[in-house]
């Protein structure tokens, strides 16, 4: 069974850090592109970052560039999102997604596999 599970969310004060994990089972992330998206209360999904696990190329939304870092550990079949200098506007449910043959990694429709999300709350 193909499954993605996010973890690492929580409550943190503004300026703090969290590291989210996206662990895969049932397939090898090394052959996939992985994207992180988030959804704040009352808003639509927003793309955050993505990585091509096979070549290591990384991309970031302007809103998180310089503060967030995506990385992968193929041996652990896990992708991480290190989030630093967190702001209240980063509060959202964060989802990871995976698929092969992704061309536009910032587009939700490119991904068939999704986790259930982890809540990140940043207090001011």
Please give a quick description of this structure.
The protein is mainly beta. Helices cover 0% and strands 51% of the residues.
The arrangement of helices and strands along the chain is EEEEEEEEEEE
Number of strands: 11
Please tell me what the overall shape is: globular
- Going by helix content, strand content and strand pairing, the class is mainly beta
Name the helicity range: under 10%
Strand content: over 45%
Quaternary organisation of the protein chains: single chain
Report the span from N to C terminus.
40 Å
Number of helices, where a helix is a run of at least 4 consecutive DSSP H or I residues: 0
What composes the largest sheet? 7 strands, mixed
- Rg, Å, rounded: 13 Å
Describe this structure in words.
The protein is an all-beta fold and 124 residues long. It is built from no helices and eleven strands. The strands form two sheets. Strands 2, 4, 5, 6, 9, 10 and 11 form a seven-stranded mixed sheet that branches. The chain is globular, with a radius of gyration of 13 Å. The N and C termini lie far apart (40 Å).
Highlighted features:
124 residues; mainly beta; seven-stranded mixed sheet; four-stranded antiparallel sheet; 11 strands; 51% strand
List the helices and strands and how they pair.
Layout: E1 3-7, E2 10-13, E3 18-25, E4 33-39, E5 45-52, E6 58-60, E7 68-73, E8 78-83, E9 92-99, E10 113-114, E11 118-123
Parallel strand pairs: 2-11
Antiparallel strand pairs: 1-3, 3-8, 4-5, 4-9, 5-6, 7-8, 9-10, 9-11
């Amino acid at each position: 069974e193909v499954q993605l599970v996010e973890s690492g969310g929580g409550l943190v004060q503004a300026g703090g850090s969290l590291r989210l994990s996206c662990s895969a089972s049932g397939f090898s992330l090394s052959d996939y592109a992985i994207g992180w998206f988030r959804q704040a209360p009352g808003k639509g999904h927003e793309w955050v970052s993505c990585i091509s696990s096979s070549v290591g190329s990384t991309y970031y939304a302007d809103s998180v560039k310089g503060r967030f870092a995506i990385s992968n550990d193929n041996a652990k079949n896990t992708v991480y999102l290190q989030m630093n200098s967190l702001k209240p506007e980063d509060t959202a449910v964060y989802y990871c997604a995976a698929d092969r043959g992704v061309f536009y990694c910032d587009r939700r429709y490119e991904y068939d596999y999704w986790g259930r999300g982890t809540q990140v709350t940043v207090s001011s």
